[in-house]
Amino acid sequence: MRLVVVGNGMAGSRLAAEVRARDADLTITVVGAEARGPYNRVLLSNVLAGTASPEQVRLPAQAGDGVNVRLGVTVTAIDRAAREVRTADGWREPYDVLVLATGSEAVVPRIPGAGRAIALRTMDDCDRILAAARTATSAVVVGGGLLGVEAARGLAGRGLRVTLLHRTGHLMDRQLDAEAGLVLGEALAGLGVTVRTGARVAAIRARGVELSTGEVLPAGLVVLACGVRPVTGLAEDAGLEVGQGVVVDDRLRTADPAIYAIGECAQHDGTVYGLVAPAWEQAAVVADLITGADPSARYRGSRLVTRLKARSVELAAMGETHLAEDPAGAVEVVMFTHRARGIYRKLVIRDDRLVGAILLGEAPTVGTLTQLYDRGGPLPGDPAGLLFPGLDDAVPADTPVRMPDSARVCECNNVTKGRIRACWEAGARDLAAVTAATRATTGCGSCADAVEGLIGWLCAQEEEVPV
Predict the structure, then answer these.
(1) Average pLDDT over every residue of 364-392
(2) Which of 66-75, 248-257, 306-315 is least confident?
(3) Which residue of 59, 181, 271, 280 has the smallest Cβ count within 10 Å?
């Protein structure tokens, strides 16, 4: 069977690896529009901040072992009748199974001078921003979503005067409620980022950013973080159903049974997922199906946990974060704010289940809450104990000794404490070895401290065993 994957990003490259792990003989061709090999797009903000190098965020190359990778090649058409893809350079590649992993593209607002700004989406964009940052003294970041916040913090960490503009009333309004957005803004202000909400950009001038009020903010560098849209043109031209993304079923298959779609370009059950964990879950399902490793595999959707990766700003948000207390008692909200310390904690509870949470600042129970949200299980004890460990002894603290082996440590790769323990017992005694064996830390990277701490705890336990 001939498998062709269009897209060599985090979804496409992972699919090739998953398929090869299940079937050593299947012929795989991966076509990527970028000239670079695959890299972790989620960690571009770390490259921008200087906490990671481009080499450190590279993903394993899939070329070799029966995997043909074509870099810098754009697929221009799908001929469904002939079952082949066509590229801009005239090449044609036949397929038995085609997987679209075309990802998303940056949204560039239609305003005068937008071409003077750099939209942060690819490693090439990151290189351009870093080159401009070497001579600039001030920067404006347009867009206060997750990527914009990370970019602003990263540039401020490089010594630039940074202004972060967001058109709505508070930062990260898709994930956070108004109070959390306010606390996040104040935390960023303490780190050197000036936050302007309710700000609308009228134009980008040579001397800076002009707002709708006529005010001009001086800037030697302007970065756009205005969101992304799925790349669906190839599928649409081929006559496949497209909504927000390429519409797929629980098999991640389009209406054409020979064509699948995964990652940011796919729309499953009305939802387009913009995070890496769902893309990798989808890649595993498709690999199971097309290799026959598990013909019953199905994708049922993902429960999302958003983690902010800006230095000195800890944030996790999950589920229905915008709900308020219901007078009828259907929804209970437990909330604590300490703005002076940059702390905001909110739990949203329905039917004794955690359906949403925001944890900003110090959050010693983030792992416990993530597990409760993931599993949908009943809450233990007094909900206040979930925010303040020690108030309720029934609430497990986020320490290795009290974590069950089923506790998920790496959300992106679904790696549990038990799996890390098993790798450690098999001889993986440091972070690099555990990462190689489990892929833990290779997604958003926010679990690195937890994984390293768990390894350290396991090593300490071994030293305490009497000989």
Answers:
(1) 78
(2) 306-315
(3) 271
**β-strand partners of 140:** 163, 222
DSSP letters spanning 37-61:
PPB-GGGHHHHHHTSS-GGGGBPPP
Percent of the chain at pLDDT above 90?
Answer: 67
If we measure between CA atoms, which residue out of 212, 124, 128, 106 comes closest to residue 165? 212
Surface-to-core class of residue 107, CB atoms within 10 Å of its CB (0-12 exposed, 13-18 middle, 19+ buried)? middle
* Sheet strands (E) in 343-456: 343-350, 353-360, 408-410, 415-416
Annotate 187-222 with b (16+ C-beta within 10 A) or e (fewer).
bbeebebbbbbebebbebbeebbbbeeeeebebbbb
**DSSP code for 239:** T
- In contact, 217 and 140? CB cutoff 8 Å: yes
Q: Tens digits of per-residue pLDDT, 11-49?
A: 999 999 999 999 988 999 999 999 999 999 999 999 998
Domains in the chain (CATH in brackets) are 2-103+229-291 (3.50.50.60), 114-226 (3.50.50.60), 314-398 (3.30.390.30), 399-467 (1.10.10.1100)
Q: 364: which DSSP letter?
A: T
What contacts 219, CB < 8 A, 6 or more positions away?
A: 136, 138, 139, 140, 163, 208, 209
CB distance 321 to 196 below 8 Å = no
Two tokens, residue 462: 């071994």
How crowded is the C-beta side of 189, counted as CA atoms within 13 Å? 16
Residue recorded with tokens 């001939």:
2
Of residues 445 and 346, the one with the higher pLDDT is: 346
pLDDT tens digits for range 43-74: 999 999 898 899 999 988 766 677 999 999 99
Give dist(CA 463, CA 457) in Å, integer. 10
Q: Which two tokens stand for residue 438?
A: 């489990």
Are β-strands 27-32 and 161-166 bridged in parallel, bridged antiparallel, or unpaired?
A: unpaired
Confidence (pTM): 0.88
What pLDDT shows up at residue 119?
A: 96
- Residue 269 has a CB neighbour count (10 Å cut-off) of 11
